[in-house]
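To the wet lab folks,

You asked to see what we're planning to order before we commit. Fair enough. Below is the target structure as tokens, and below that is the sequence we designed to fit it. If anything looks off to you, flag it before the synthesis order goes out.
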């Protein structure tokens, strides 16, 4: 970990330090995925409820984008290259109904996080299957994860399996456990007022993994 150099300091939000490594942060075990049974689904307030198999998902249009990661545990990793399906492509096919304002991400193993519908429409938001030229590793969310760069990285669900389109904003797993409902790193929207046991366990696990990798 290091303080950012002057030439990249403008890209690093307050309270963050830089890392060239990619810490593995997971609450619980990394799920095992059988791609023969894998699906991604769009449901809720949409004109078309859709489901893709892994083979069908791989046929969707893909892009390559570069973006920075900002983790709520106070590290940032710059210049990541992602290959994946633009979230906008998925959304356009599902055709959300008027009044849709939020999306609840559903991911293995029974994880959720909430996001504003508008935040998913940016050009750099992708359902990523590759990172820096390699298939996305299971510990980092493979076979597919969301990448939503302008928010803290817990809003980029690992092992993503569905978008639920809504006109309300229900808190997801970490939001129910004390994390912020929106998660803008530039205004340090990290936590709510109540620190929970899950938050403390996550912070302790992050510190342990960083010690092991140093």
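Sequence we intend to order:
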């Amino acid at each position: 970990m290091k303080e950012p150099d002057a030439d990249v300091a403008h890209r690093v939000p307050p309270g963050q330090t830089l890392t060239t490594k990619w810490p593995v942060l997971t609450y619980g075990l990394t799920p095992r995925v059988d791609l023969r049974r894998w699906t991604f689904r769009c449901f809720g307030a949409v004109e078309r409820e859709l489901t893709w198999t892994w083979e069908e998902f791989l046929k969707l249009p893909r892009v390559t984008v570069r973006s920075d990661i900002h983790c709520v545990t106070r590290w940032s990793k710059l210049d990541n290259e992602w290959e994946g399906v633009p979230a906008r492509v998925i959304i356009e096919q599902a055709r959300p109904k008027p009044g849709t304002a939020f999306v609840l991400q559903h991911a293995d193993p029974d994880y959720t996080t909430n996001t504003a519908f508008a935040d998913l429409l940016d050009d750099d938001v992708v359902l990523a299957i590759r990172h820096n030229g390699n298939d996305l590793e299971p510990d980092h969310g493979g076979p597919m994860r969301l990448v939503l760069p302008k928010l803290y990285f817990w809003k980029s669900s690992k092992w993503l399996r569905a978008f639920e389109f809504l006109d309300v904003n229900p808190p997801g797993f970490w939001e129910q456990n004390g994390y912020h409902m929106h998660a803008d790193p530039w205004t340090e929207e990290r936590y709510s007022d109540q620190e929970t046991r899950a938050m403390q366990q996550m912070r302790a696990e992050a510190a342990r993994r960083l010690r092991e990798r140093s």
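Structural context that might help your review: The CA atoms of residues 65 and 82 lie 5 Å apart. The mean pLDDT is 91.

Thanks,
Computational group
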